[in-house]
Amino acid sequence: MLNLDNVQKALLKELTGVADFLKGAFNVRANGASALRQSTDSIRIVPKKDCEGFDIFIAPETEGERVHIPVVMTKSGMKETVYNDFHIGEGADIAIVAGCGIHNCGGDDSQHDGVHRFWIGKDAKVKYVEKHVGAGDGKGRRILNPVTEVHQEEGSVLEMEMTQIRGVDDTTRTTTADLAAGARLVVRERLLTGGKERALSAYTVNLDGKGASADIVSRGVAQGESFQRLDVRIVGNAPCTGHTECDSIIMDKGRIVAVPALEANDTDAALVHEAAIGKIAGDQLVKLMTLGLTEQEAETEIINGFLK
Amino acid sequence: MLKLENISFTVPCATGGRTILQGMNLDVPEGKIVVVTGPNGGGKSTLAKLIAGIETPTSGRILLDGADITAKSITERSRLGIGYAFQQPVRFKGVRVLDLLRLAAKKPLDVDEACKYLAAVGLCAQDYVEREVNSSLSGGELKRIEIATVFAKASKVSIFDEPEAGIDLWSFQSLIAVFKEMRHEIKGGSIMIISHQERILNIADEIVVLKDGGIFKQGPRAAVLPMLVGTPLAVGGCPKGGQGRSGKC
């Protein structure tokens, strides 16, 4: 299909999760260059002139289409910053599948910093899925620093699913959002770190319009000597509802810091946060062992369920 | 089928040790329902945990089909044919009811198959299979799902620790029907139930009364039950939702 090597193809498959994404709009970025790109009648992908990246224009009322923008890096020592701006027309209902796979077999660090900005039009509905995959046995580190900036107009809905399951040595994720009246933001973040990996994730969500709402749920598992820090800040500037839940399991010598923060600047802002960190409960292990699982199998089943 | 020989269990405490069970012998015959009753603190829950492998006896042997399983782990005993329903079932974030039933049955289950086990405990499968076994479930729902997992596991010996606790919205008749169905479905399987409830004692083939760490009475229902009716041992000696004191000093 594409002019990609087998490692790149394998990463791509893991990122997209579907074999037929080439039917819709997409841009595949491999080792710093666009390997293949396709627009459709309603989704145009236009390269930026002043920096690396694209403007992605989604026509109003576009329905049921998907945009795939995977990035694969297999060259050790590469460092890049890429800007992708999504302009989503009013009333559109679409899915965007992004993600970055780094395979580093060399001794130098590989780093991809993706900056994604979203302008979501009135009453548009967007599902955004982002997956990070790291592989390779080189000594060079795999580094990903995604920045996501979201602007939601009235009545728009954005659902974000972000997943990173081991393999990325260092991540700093920064997400900011501002929501107009009646807009809704739903975030589901899943994070599993091991070894000496370090993952930081910070959200600032401004609920600016009447009836805006946000639901930010992050689940993390820190194994080995890894470290995670999650900062979620929801700011209510109008009558609105906000909920954040940071739920984490620590194992081995893992460390986790969870800092949920709420700021209400309107008496009708209803904001709630929950945070819990703990090891796997002994009773959970025993229950699954009474069903015939070994302790290790029980642990895996509990973690897989937790991060599902 | 299941045999306990001279089982003792002592927990350490400041004064040296507290004996929960002392020199206990018990037979659970194939295909029978054995109900264990007795006053709180008599060692009933400890007995169940010793059989499941959650606790280890201080001395004595546990035999399953003639093989000594005393040194076997929880996992090994489960695989050899011991099932155990928790008195206080465990919640799991992210693990669905269907996942638990699948793990219990040791095979992929479709919704129709899962339905059989959930319907047996009075839950509508369509509403529950995809639900997580988390705090969104009530105590009663959780208890019924716990019973369903042990049913799905189809063990040689299935042990239920106070299955009636917390199921107040569901009828006793339905609970009793589950045990009857299990006996019918699991050919030759034995069921051991820890309960004070007269209605559960009424379906026992054998009744065992535990007291002060030993067997106070044991025999066929017809012989033992008349002695218990009207006493706390047959009507609910444990407050609703209460727990035994197993292993606590």
Protein topology:
The complex is a heterodimer of chains A (308) and B (249).
Chain A: H1 6-16, E1 25-30, E2 33-38, E3 43-47, E4 53-58, E5 63-73, E6 79-88, E7 93-103, E8 110-120, E9 125-135, E10 142-144, E11 147-152, E12 157-165, E13 170-179, E14 184-193, E15 198-207, E16 213-222, E17 227-236, E18 240-250, E19 255-264, E20 269-278, H2 282-290, H3 295-306
Parallel strand pairs in A: 1-5, 4-6, 5-7, 6-8, 7-9, 8-10, 8-11, 9-12, 10-13, 11-13, 12-14, 13-15, 14-16, 15-17, 16-18, 17-19, 18-20
Antiparallel strand pairs in A: 1-2, 3-4
Chain B: E1 2-11, E2 18-28, E3 33-37, H1 44-52, E4 59-64, E5 67-68, H2 74-80, E6 82-85, H3 97-105, H4 111-120, H5 125-128, H6 139-153, E7 157-161, H7 172-185, E8 190-194, H8 198-201, E9 206-211, E10 214-220, H9 221-228, H10 232-235
Parallel strand pairs in B: 3-8, 3-9, 6-7, 7-8
Antiparallel strand pairs in B: 1-2, 1-4, 4-5, 9-10
Helix pairs in contact in B: 3-6, 4-6
Describe the structure.
The complex is a heterodimer of chains A (308) and B (249). Chain A has helices at 6-16, 282-290, 295-306; strands at 25-30, 33-38, 43-47, 53-58, 63-73, 79-88, 93-103, 110-120, 125-135, 142-144, 147-152, 157-165, 170-179, 184-193, 198-207, 213-222, 227-236, 240-250, 255-264, 269-278. Chain A is globular and about 55 Å long. In chain A, helix 2 (282-290) packs across helix 3. Chain A starts with 5 loop residues before the first helix and ends with a helix. In chain A, strand 3 (43-47) and strand 4 (53-58) form a beta hairpin. Chain A folds into two domains: 1-145, no CATH class; 160-283, no CATH class. Chain A is mostly beta strands. In chain B, the strands form two sheets. In chain B, strands 6-7-8-3-9-10 form a six-stranded mixed beta sheet, with helices on both faces. Chain B has a domain at 2-86 and 154-235: 3-Layer(aba) Sandwich (Rossmann fold). Chain B is of the alpha/beta class and 249 residues long. The chains are: A mainly beta (308), B alpha/beta (249). The interface between A and B is medium-sized, with 22 and 26 residues.
